[in-house]
Structures are given as structure tokens and as C-alpha cells.
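Quick illustration for those who missed Monday's session on complexes.
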Amino acid sequence: MSEPMQEIFDRARAVIPGGVSSPVRAYGSVGGVPRFLASAHGPRVRDTTGREYVDLVMSWGPGLLGHAHPEVVAAVQEAAARGLSFGAPTVAEVELAEAVRARVPAAQKVRFVSTGTEATMTAARLARGATGRDLLVKFAGCYHGHVDALLAEAGSGVATAGLPGSAGVTAASAAETIVLPYNDVAALEAVLAERGDQVAAVITEAAPANMGVVPPAPGLNAALRRLTAEHGALLVLDEVLTGFRVGPAGWWGLEQHGRGGGTEAWEPDLFTFGKVVGGGIPLAALGGRADLMDLLAPAGPVYQAGTLSGNPLATAAGLATLRLADEGVYAHVDAAARTVSDALGSALDAEGVPHRVQRAGNLFSVMFGEAAARDGVRSYAEAQQQDAFRYPAFFHAMLEAGVALPPSVFEAWFLSAAHDDAAVEQIVAALPAAARAAARA
Ligand code: PMP
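Prediction with 4'-deoxy-4'-aminopyridoxal-5'-phosphate bound:
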């Protein structure tokens, strides 16, 4: 197969490490040459040769409404005409914080940053500042951005590359993070019984989607809440990926309405948001209990700042996105995700490829292998045991058919309100040949 992107990829690798600005984009685990994109509209992206693909990456989550929604683009253009960045407070920040709190009341106060990484980094510092304790607890396979303390056994690109963590993280930093298996309340109970008085926070993805999709067992998040409270540790719910995507109030909102398998009402101390809340422009947020949030500078002693934080283009895109993301949008994304994930399972069944399609709200991914098919995947260790070798052939067959999947088996598939019947049908029509490719792999 000719590789029209080879030349630009070579040029990219000469000046950018790996040729990309974020590792998974390099197609490392699926092989081949990444598509360099020129434009994106609705459910489709177009590469520099003009070839179009139905997109199931959607910028890794922000594109809830589809690419370049006209009203979001107009809001950004209007904001841009008024100035690109002020380094001073704006009304739009206040409105966006109010919009976040209206959907997630437990986010009583909100601080805007530019990336999810900054949000979780700040959450960790705030938790340590608030409790006077040093230790963090995270779960293997959960990804919280490239924060030193949170890279151990992380998901996403760290999982794709099969790394235990990252070079350059000091031993001291790693020693302050305890990594536990996901979906294992007993492991957390044991750690807290022993060292609970040293734990500043437990951080968890609201519904993990960075080791593939591994939903929390019913009642897990509520149990994390109960245990952390018992030991005076904070609970940080990372909704960077799930927030405003799986429902109007994120995964937390689904659990409060009994739709995420939740059994009781509960609130974390802190939330992190990103992706959808910035509508595709760099913006993320930390939110939570007002007494904790008021520990952030300038109100309190925990320092945090950002030259471009609350950037007017980003707040305009975020506000427009949240205004447009009504119940109809979520119903559409849910239905499209159901159709595609059902068709994915049927296509693999038809070819006798052992697998399990795992879902968390409108997020889903496929786990290959007998064990996954039989028992499902509940943890990172189980996710890593899958037959990941089947994915590259599957991925490239879909790409050939004009469907761009996430270039790693450890990532969720993202649908949007712009995935209309034509886009969904193109995905569904491509699945049987991809399943055959996976069967032969
Ligand atoms: N937390 C979660 C759950 C994420 O999925 C991500 C990114 N995929 C992050 C944090 C980090 O966000 P960012 O890439 O914007 O730094």
C-alpha cells in the first residue's frame, strides 16, 4: 500500500520527537503511518490528501457535538474578534463556572486551567495542602494526565507503550503514590487500615476509559467515598474524559440517577474536568467543595496560576458547547454508541473472534480474548492480558474503509451528536471485513 503520509511523517520526525505532539497519535501500537489531518466537520475528518474518514476519536473526547459545530465556531470567532487573551478576569469565565455548577452542584467553586493534566496536578497539590498529608492513592490503568505523581501504571499512552511509568519521575515522587488494582475495595481497605492517616487523596477515573473501557462495579465509587471519608482523605473524581460526555452531569450524574450502576447518593470532594468543557479548545477545570477550593491562591495558601487560564476563546467554546449539549444530544450519542457497539460485537461474533465489548454510558471499547469474553475485564492486569495483537489488523481494515478508530486498543471509541445515520451506517458496514482481519491476525 502506498503511504501518502510517509513524506510528511518523515519531515515531522526530523523536527518533533516521534513526529507527534502526543504519543498515541504516532500509530506506535497499530503500525503504519499516521494520517495528518487538514480539516474536520461533523462526524468526519479529512487528511492532507483530501481523503475523508468517519471519526471515532473526536479529538479524544471534546467533540461531543461533532467537529466544528457552526454555533461553537461562531462563538469562538466572535470571541476572537474581541481579543485572543487578556490575562484578566472575564464574564465568560463566571458564566462557564456557573454552567458547570448548574450541572454538577457539588462543584461549588471552579478554577479553570488549560489541560486535564493541570487539573489533576492541582487537585493533588490542593489535597496535600488541605490535609497536610503526602500520599496519593491511584488505581492501575487509570490515566490522570502526565503528572509525575500520577504516571505510575497509568493508562492511555503509557498503557499503549507498555510502560510501567515514565523515566524522569523521581523515586521520591513515585514513593508518594500508592497504586492499587481497580475495582478492588479490599485492597483500598487494607492500605487505608495501615496508612490511612498519611493519605491525602484517592484519585479515580469516574469510569475508567484509558485502559479500554472498564466500568466501576456497582457501588465502587460510593465505597471509595465512604472509605476516604472514614480516614480523612479526600476523594478526587477525575471526569476529564467522562464529564459532560456520558451525560449532562458526567458519570457522577449517571450514578446519582441510578444509571451508572450507583446504589446511593454520594459526592467527591474534588472533580477534574476537561475535554468537552472546553469545546475543543485548551481548557480544563478543577471543581469541588467551596471550603477546599478557597484554599487556592489568591484566596488561600495553595498556589496555582496560568497565563492562558480561562482563555476567552476556550470559555466561548465551552459555553457554547454546554448550552447546546441538551438531553437530545445525549440521547443521540447514547443511541449511536449502542448501535455501533452492538454491531461491533455481532461482527466479531460472526467471525468467531473471542472478545467482550465493554461499555460505560456512551463510551465503549473492545477487549479481545477468551478470558475477556468469559469474565469481562475489571482491572488493568486483565486488560493487559487481552489478545491485543488482533487490534492492528482490525484498525487498519477500518481505516481502509474510511473509518478512523483510536489507534490503540486501550482507548475508548467516541461518538458524537453529529454521527448521523450515514456515518453510523458507514461504520457498521466496515465492521465485518475488519472482524475478518482480526480473526486472521
Ligand atoms: N484525566 C483523564 C481521565 C484523561 O482521560 C485525560 C486525557 N485523556 C487526562 C486526565 C489528561 O488530560 P490532558 O490530556 O488534557 O492533559
